[in-house]
Amino acid sequence: MSGAGPRENVFPTRMTLTLIKTRLKGAQTGHSLLKKKADALNKRFRTILGKIAEAKLKMGRVMQLAAFSLAEVTYATGDIGYQIQESIVTASFVVETRQENVSGVILPTFVKGTPPAGSGGESGNGGLQLTGLGRGGQQITKCRETFAKATETLVELASLQTAFVILDEVIKMTNRRVNALEHVVIPRLENTISYINSELDEMDREEFFRLKKVQSKKKRDNAIKEAEAAAKAASEGGGAGDAAAAGAGQGLLNEKDEDVIF
Amino acid sequence: MTSMVGMKDRVLMATIGDEDTITGLLLAGTGHIDPKGKKNFTVVTSKTPVSTIEAAFTEYTERADIAVVLINQHVADQIRPLVEKYQQAFPALLEIPSKDHPYDPSKDSVLKRVKKLSGE
């Protein structure tokens, strides 16, 4: 289905011509609108790309800091990994999804959310009951804060990434639609219109030709009839010529022409 | 278009990483054990088989209550083909550095897609 050939299968009437013209106009408007949407999305895409690259580097640095503070804790308290894993109950750090609308595309953003009710322990501890870690508690609190900050950066990065993936999909789809309109739908409709026009012209020509033919035939018929009447009048003699002529004249008037309506 | 149904339920941040990374993130409060006993974190050591990592990855990406999956970069390298194939928008997949493996942008599969597209 490509090239200048294909057109829709329709009867070439004036009504279908108007219908197809309306559809063509619709397709052209849709095409320009979609192009604008693709441009807007692309612009947004570029901004996000830049932000992602930046955020990734920031995350690298932040995680290094956090890892370092964890090393400090291990140095001060010994390995607390096992204890922490055992004391987990519910997450105190959760993410909330918010939705943003960018030229018709719903993009999610992650925000640090509030944990569901009933999961919090003492203030600052969340669900963790870190009893038994009294020694070096200050280090642990500091470490927790650093990691909390690191996690917030991670959340930001996750939002950017999700937005990126979704935008990517949408842009591809919009481009596909733009191309489809440009290279398939609009040429087809244009071909259909030119086909209908050429058929209508041909029908007009046929009509015209038919009319001319009928007229010329009528003329010929009339000419033959007149010739016959004249021959008859001539054969009936000169004396009755005037009368015949008058009679022929009357005859003409009395003749009924079927085409005359009144 | 990606389905937005169930977005409200995605709240957790899952982690697949080495012990130190897990400890730190658990300290921040991301750890969660649901009533059925399912955890949202997997500790990966040098002895952990690749199949365990792959199973954890598949599990977290299919769970409906997880919004973000964090994975150490060196762990992601072990299941690189699976990570490269991952195209969903949710949950978001994030590669993070670990204490012994600093962040390497050239290995990050998302960044690779970013670079490919920004080069268009």
Descriptive keywords:
heterodimer; A: 262 residues; mainly alpha; two-stranded antiparallel ribbon; 4 helices; 2 strands; B: 120 residues; alpha/beta; four-stranded parallel sheet; 5 helices
Instruction: Find the count of extended strands of chain A (DSSP E, 2+ residues).
Output: 2
Based on secondary structure, the structural category of chain B is alpha/beta
- Give the percentage of residues in beta strands of chain A: 5-15%
Major β-sheet annotation of chain B: 4 strands, parallel
Using only C-alpha atoms, the radius of gyration of chain B works out to: 14 Å
**What is the tally of helical segments of chain A?**
4
Structural class of chain A: mainly alpha
Question: Most extensive interface, residues per chain?
Answer: A-B, 58 and 52 residues
Shape of chain A: rod-shaped
Number of strands of chain B: 4
Mean pLDDT of chain B equals 80
- Strand arrangement across the biggest beta sheet of chain B: 2-1-3-4
Main sheet properties of chain A: 2 strands, antiparallel
Give me the strand/helix succession of chain B: EHEHEHHEH
What sort of overall outline of chain B do the alpha carbons produce when their principal axes are compared? globular
Question: Strands of the biggest beta sheet of chain A: in what spatial order?
Answer: 1-2
Textual characterization of the structure:
The complex is a heterodimer of chains A (262) and B (120). Chain A contains 4 helices and 2 strands. In chain A, strands 1-2 form a two-stranded antiparallel ribbon. With 262 residues, chain A is mainly α. Chain B has 120 residues and is an alpha/beta fold. Chain B is 38% helix and 18% strand. Chain B is globular. Classes of the chains: A mainly alpha (262), B alpha/beta (120).
